Amino acid sequence: MKVVLIGVGQAGGKVTQVLAEFDHEMGFDAIRGAFAVNTAKADLQSLDIDTMLIGQDRVKGHGVGGDNELGAEIMQDEATEVMDQLDARIATDAEAVMIVAGLGGGTGSGGAPALAKELNRVYDVPIYVLGILPGRNEGSLYQANAGRSLKTVIREADSALLIDNDAWRTSNETVQEGFENINKQIAQRVGLLLAAGEIVEGVGESVVDSSEIINTLRDGGIASLGYASAEAAPDASENVNTITSLARKSLLTGMSLPNAVDAEAALLVIAGQPDRISRKGVERARKWIEEETGSLQVRGGDFPLDSDRLAALVLLGGVERSQRVQEFMDRAREANQETESRDATEEFDNEQLDDLF
Ligand SMILES: Nc1nc2c(ncn2[C@@H]2O[C@H](COP(=O)(O)OP(=O)(O)OP(=O)(O)O)[C@@H](O)[C@H]2O)c(=O)[nH]1
Prior knowledge:
Layout: E1 3-8, H1 9-26, E2 31-38, H2 41-45, E3 50-53, H3 56-59, H4 68-77, H5 79-87, E4 96-102, H6 107-122, E5 127-133, H7 140-156, E6 159-164, H8 175-196, H9 210-216, E7 222-231, H10 240-253, E8 265-272, H11 279-293, E9 297-304, E10 309-317, H12 323-339, E11 347-348, E12 351-352
Parallel strand pairs: 1-2, 1-4, 2-3, 4-5, 5-6, 6-7, 8-9
Antiparallel strand pairs: 7-10, 8-10, 11-12
Helix pairs in contact: 1-6, 1-8, 4-6, 6-7, 7-12, 10-11
This protein binds guanosine-5'-triphosphate.
Guanosine-5'-triphosphate is lined by residues 9-12, 14, 39-40, 63-66, 102, 104-109, 132, 134, 138, 142, 165, 179, 182-183.
GO biological process, one term: regulation of cell shape
Binding site for GTP: 10-14, 106-108, 138, 165, 183
InterPro entries: CetZ, CetZ_C, FtsZ/CetZ, Tubulin/FtsZ-like_C, Tubulin/FtsZ_GTPase_sf, Tubulin_CS, Tubulin_FtsZ_GTPase
């Protein structure tokens, strides 16, 4: 799927850059443009992609310090300038725009939904948000910010693909090492998904294309992405169990939102050499995903890749009813009550959280 990426805020810019690098190194060319917007000058200076500083008159290049209402306001005020810069970068063949942001901070948290609204007003292609949720040990401001941002993102974007910062964390690593590690994992998974809908070599009926990604995300709401890979035998007939267990591993232990398996729609992509991909294995894996997610719309497709390994990517659409998402919204609502005493007038999934704007 040909995509233009727009990173907003610190995490958004870093993840956008790592994704663009992964796509380039792998020679996929699915990412047709990468751009970073921030209120903090220093964060932009460390990036190699095109950048734009916003909110200079209000925060003098120092960031918004976790104030996501200010982040949203700045993006709304400077929407015209940002859109002008983007216009030059949104390739005419782009099939989607993906805004990338950490939802717990200020600039990305407030700016991402504001930008999604503006992009949706102007462009016909789907506008997705790749949103990073704060880990459990991050403070209540981060949780509350992410809850309000998420609620608004769901309203403004066509789908929110979420990454829980706790999802792939390993023990014994510093916060910084943790970010580097998780950013690489995001890049690999999201990068493969986007490329899967793009590669047309070895075309066969079973090769996945971008419309399947778009259709899986069509119903909106929250999406998540899982991944697992393993050595595979040269002969497809020996890989039936490998494929079913990769699908299980991907859904049960590899998702970007752990324990969120109830879904409206799913897409299973098996990546590897076509000769190694067992059709029987793929069919069984799809059936299993159907049962596990309770979704009747489980799409499937191959991603031909020259590797001795096989990998399973599972994209779930419409996971907002899952327990994990409810838990997060509970955490965000509690944090919101702790950090401010505003009245909650609207509800998202029965949780009392205000929209950002
Ligand atoms: N995965 C990941 N998360 C990050 C990274 N950097 C920050 N975060 C998370 O993003 C959230 C903070 O958002 P930032 O992007 O730092 O904040 P910002 O949007 O720049 O906003 P301000 O700094 O307030 O202007 C927190 O939940 C962090 O855990 C990163 O490199 N990778």
